[in-house]
Amino acid sequence: MGEAARTFEDLRVWRMAHEFVLDIYRYTQGFPAEERFGLTSQMRRAAVSVPANIAEGFSKRGKSEKVRFFNISQGSPEEVHYYLILANDLGYGEPAQLLTSCDEVGWMLQACCSAVRHSNFQLPASSS
């Protein structure tokens, strides 16, 4: 196993989720202006909640608390997945690569939850 993460930014799943958020922001820039407070806002908020909950969960000391925040973050990729299908059906752009990235983040979160649940050690918590 590799070196222990010292901050949430060291987590591969967080880095993937953060990159996904940046991709979602770029994708939604091309949406019609009337979607600014609708689909654009909803999709961005759901995407942002993934790395935000990973970061918050990282600081938790107990396994159950870490898993709880990772579980919360797992719902958001599914929400974004739907928004991407909707955006495609509305003709707002081809989301194939984003759908793949969305699924990868979801799978990695599932693996993280499982790893934390079945570990015999406490994951490091930030010093805050």
What is the topology?
Blueprint: H1 12-28, H2 39-58, H3 63-89, H4 96-117
Helix pairs in contact: 1-2, 1-4, 2-3, 3-4
Structure description:
The chain has one domain (about 10-115): 23S rRNA-intervening sequence (de novo design (two linked rop proteins), Up-down Bundle), CATH 1.20.1440.60. It is elongated and about 50 Å long. With about 130 residues, the protein is an all-alpha fold. The protein contains 4 helices and no strands. Mean pLDDT is about 85; it is low at about 120-128. Helix 2 (about 40-60) packs antiparallel against helix 3 (about 65-90).
Concise overview:
By secondary structure, the chain is an all-alpha fold. The chain has helices at residues 12-28, 39-58, 63-89, 96-117.
> What is the CA-CA span between the terminal residues?
25 Å
The CATH architecture can be given as: Up-down Bundle
Q: Determine the fraction of residues in helical runs and give it as a percent range.
A: 55-70%
Count up the helices: 4
What oligomeric state do the depicted chains represent?
single chain
Average pLDDT across residues? 87
Provide the β-strand percentage band.
under 5%
CA radius of gyration is 16 Å
* Envelope shape: elongated
